[in-house]
Amino acid sequence: MDVVYQFEEVARLPLPGDNCAVAIQQLNSGTVIQYEGQFLVLDYTVMEGHRFAVKAIAPGEDLLSWHLPFGVAIQPIQPGHYVINKTVREALSVRQLTFAVPAEPNFADQVSPYILDEENFQPAQASPAYEDTRTFMGYRRHADRGVGTRNYVVLLGTTSHTGSYVNELASRLQGEWKNDSNIDGIVPVAHTEGGIENPNNADLLLRTLAGFMVNPNVGAVLVIDYGNESVTNKMVEAYAREHSYPIDEVLHKFVSLTGSFEEELVKGEAIVRDWLEAVSSMQRTSESISHLRIGLQCGGSDAFSGVSANPLLGWVSEQLVRYGGAASLAETDELIGAEPYVLSKVRNVETARKFLELVNRFKERTSWHGTSAEGNPSGGNMYRGLYNIYLKSIGAAMKKDPTTRIDYATEYGELMKDGGYYFMDSPGNDLESIAGQIAAGCNMIFFTTGNGSITNFPYVPTVKVVTTTRRFQLLSNDMDVNAGQYLEGKSMDELGQEVFELALQIASGQRSVGEKAGHAQVQIWRNWQQNDASQLETLLHTPVPTGAPIAIEDNVVPMANSIQFSFTRHRNRQSSDHIGLIVPTSLCAGQVAGMITRRLNEQGTGKPELSRFVTLAHTEGCGTSGGPAESLFSRTLIGYITHPMVEHCLLLEHGCEKTHNDYMRHQMDVMGVDASRLGYASIQLDGGIAKVSEKVEAWFADQLAAAEPAEKVTVGLEGLRIGIVSVGAMNKDAGAQLGLLTRMIVGAGGLVVVPENSELLAEDAFSQPLFGSSQVRPSIAYGEHVRRNGFHIMETPTTHGVETITGLAATGVELIIALIGDRPMQTHPFVPMLQVTSEQAVVHNHKQDVDLVLEGNPNIWVNQILERSKEILEHTYVPRLYQQGNIGFQMTRGFLGVSL
Predict the structure, then answer these.
(1) pLDDT-based confidence at residue 842 (cuts at 50, 70, 90)
(2) Residue 557: pLDDT band by 50, 70, 90 thresholds?
(3) What share of the chain is helix, strand, coil (3-state, %, to 5)?
(4) By percentage, how much of the chain surpasses pLDDT 90?
(5) Which among 54, 634, 635, 772 has the fewest CB atoms less than 10 Å away?
(6) Cβ neighbours, 10 Å, residue 96
(7) What is the torsional sign of CA 805, 806, 812, 815?
(8) Is the pLDDT of residue 377 over 70?
(9) pLDDT tens, position by position, 3-14
(10) Residues contacting residue 389 through CB under 8 Å, at least 6 positions apart
(11) Which fold has domain 141-287?
(12) CB–CB of 836/817 below 8 Å?
């Protein structure tokens, strides 16, 4: 007989009596394991974290972990057989594996629905409170705000429109505070929400913003809007006062931006500088740990999350609650299937009922969008052994200790007013869920991870707990706690006490690993577009655009124009610019991509072949529904990967997302895109932030060293790729001249793309001379790379300006002409935007922002636009708002995207 392993050497049972074990390392096909007097022979290779049967399981019998079902056998499963369902088989099929997986699934995702027995419900008693107390060094605020673990100046954008303002303001103020002061930082809080009319999440957004303001870690907060969005400063203030948020007990100011971007930045700098002395005077004092409010999260989970890391947080939470503190469990859809455990100890029947109501509401909302709340696990989750939502949920629920009672079930962002153990409604999307806990008052976040998620929040410390020693060693510079010690024999009491002491040190000011890394992300629970299922079938069967250009009327011949442009040609393509692009495949990789990009630009890497390096940080790729929303996302990313201005491109995955590198390779293969010329890197698999940064820099260095020189070429209008958008009131003469410009470029063989939601298309002066009607269907999908020049209309399943520009730039246009009738738009990270207006009010208020004012005889406007376009494309003029840092990038989720 070959080498025989003892069961404890290679596997774990979550609880005695389970019929499926978890492999703690990869076990090859044919491996022999001795278990309870029998020898098990593995029929297939079982990956680390995946499961195999330890008992015979008959068809129709439940598969059990933690004594709870996570599926039902659909064929006989013998001891030693690898257990696998359909979704995991499909997820593994796009991975580059070196071994075979079973040809057919042997179990199905099926769990009996939970029904609350209210008639026989028994309220649970709370664990006995400790008579003594422990202390930490914190910032005492007003009694209604609590005690902070940090002391930050926060720059809060009320909506997505002011995100670029708070980011740029924070950047300018970084040198204004000293590390030895009592100020922990000046940080921006930019997000994606509130930028459209009548968002469905308006109440949720107001609650979150009010909670962000009064979180005890805030020393001062500047709240920014434009004053005319769907959610404004006045609305935030009114909501806060109506719901008794203690905003008067925090140093704050509401500011509406009315002038030019630069003028408003100067005003913002002055306000914050005036606060610094007062914020720095705030001192840490000894405070009871009853003031600690900790948020419990898991992300990049694996099969060991529910065995080591999550039970560890359960232990810590139970201790804190007994000391009078509070803990918050969240991620509603990641508790589906674990209801029997979650509700095994509840304060009262009302709390149990509220919990189930929140779960059912979440399920209903996702169904309106053609998806299921049970579809949460990402590709990374499944790769690491979480086969379905039931298995993921059972493990996630272990953040509640078996002895802990659920005291409250609350809405997203609802304030935690007392000590105890809370459940807060939120999606499983890590960052969206964390934002709700911060708004609820959490002053620390504990984040468990199997893959090694690097998540941090700007002004609340995050303590990251990794599930296995092997993963901790790989990512030791990015993780705080190795819960794998429990798997190796350390008692939970001993490990729990160590982590509890670490928590007090971090609460007292010791920086967490994430804080030292210097990056953070924010995402509020994103808006959902459907309020019922009435539009579902129509949206699911919307015709796909053909990609063919839209024919233009030929009854008017546009004037010829002899203007020429100097471009470069390289690898059989010509363009106006060459950039190095880092594409994060999910939101969690975005900030790391940004850090690498900044360093490359500071070093002058790639000059003169590349003008600069760019990254496209976004909020998607994980924690959202699949189907149309996922297709839209991948199509848009591929539009950027294939953009003519992109010379060298690398994909940076976090490592546990739905849209990981292998997923993107597969999507490119399907679309006929050559994926071999791209670079690939993984924050988790390559060993953390420092190591992946070195890998990315080395890849670009190799590409630049091997590149052939580009040649200069001269092109006319046929070489232009232009996007045209309009915002606000329309000047008919300007619309007519843009129509003429369109005819000239398209007639010469160039490309013009207009988004479907543009007011230009409803303007007769623009549309009738082109195609005789304003009712023309889109020719390309949102974010689709244009393959044939001509005139195109792009689908826009969004009314959000930045989301529209994000899709438009992905089509391959190299210049966006924005006709401004209200105020200037946020610019794009690398496709230049020419801001044009004929409105004197705009000129007066935004003189420093506008690139071209159309005045006098309209017949000369086309030539003026072309001349300024030439300056931009040939890099002799940089659009003003791009130069000032007013830059935005935001993916739409379309009509059917919804957070999971």
Answers:
(1) confident
(2) low
(3) 35, 20, 45
(4) 80
(5) 772
(6) 7
(7) positive
(8) no
(9) 789 998 999 898
(10) 109, 333, 334, 336, 337, 373, 374, 375, 376, 377
(11) Rossmann fold (3.40.50)
(12) yes
Fold designation for 714-884: Rossmann fold (3.40.50)
What's 4-108's CATH class?
A: mainly beta
Distances in Å between the alpha carbon of 187 and those of 164, 172, 503? 13, 11, 23
**pLDDT grade, residue 103 (50/70/90)?**
confident
Nearest residue to 783 via CA among 637, 620, 658, 596: 637
Note the pLDDT tens digit of each residue in 718-775. Answer: 999 999 999 887 788 999 999 999 999 999 999 999 999 998 998 888 888 888 766 7
Q: How far apart are CA 434 and CA 463, in angstroms?
A: 13
The secondary structure of 663-724 as a DSSP string is: HHHHHHHHHT---TTSEEEETTTTTSHHHHHHHHHHHHHHHHHHPPPPEEEEE-GGG-EEEE
With bands split at pLDDT 50, 70 and 90, how would you rate the model's confidence at 558?
A: low
Task: Name the residue among 247, 238, 155, 157 with its Cα closest to residue 203.
Answer: 238
Strands 751-755 and 721-728 turn out to be: parallel
| CA–CA separation, 535 and 529 (whole Å) | 10
More confident: 216 or 622: 216
Q: Among all chains, which residue has been given the structure tokens 């008692």? A: 491
At 97 the pLDDT is 82
Question: Could you say which DSSP state residue 307 is in?
Answer: I
User: Measured between alpha carbons, how far is 210 from 515 in angstroms, rounded to an integer?
Assistant: 24
Q: What pLDDT is recorded for position 373? A: 80
Kindly list the strands in the beta sheet with 218-225, ordered across the sheet, starting from the edge strand earlier in the chain. 185-189, 152-157, 218-225, 251-256
**Amino acid making up residue 672:** G
Looking at residue 524, the DSSP 8-state letter turns out to be: -
Termini Cα distance of the chain: 48
Name residue 817's beta-bridge partners: 724, 834
Cross-strand bridge partners of residue 286: 137
Q: Mapping DSSP to helix (H, G, I), strand (E, B) and coil, where does residue 73 land?
A: strand
- Interatomic CA distance for residues 66 and 344, integer angstroms: 14
d(CA 122, CA 615) in angstroms, rounded, equals: 55
What is the token pair recorded at 539?
A: 């949206």
The residue with tokens 């993984």 is 682
* Residues forming a β-bridge with 71: 63
Kindly list the domain boundaries of the chain, sorted by start residue.
Answer: 4-108, 141-287, 290-517, 579-709, 714-884
Residue 744 in tokens: 């000239």
Parallel, antiparallel or unpaired: strands 326-329 and 293-298: parallel
- Beta carbons within 8 Å of 475's beta carbon, 6+ residues apart: 452, 466, 684, 687, 688
β-pairing verdict for 251-256 and 285-288: unpaired
Partners of 464 in the beta sheet? Answer: 447
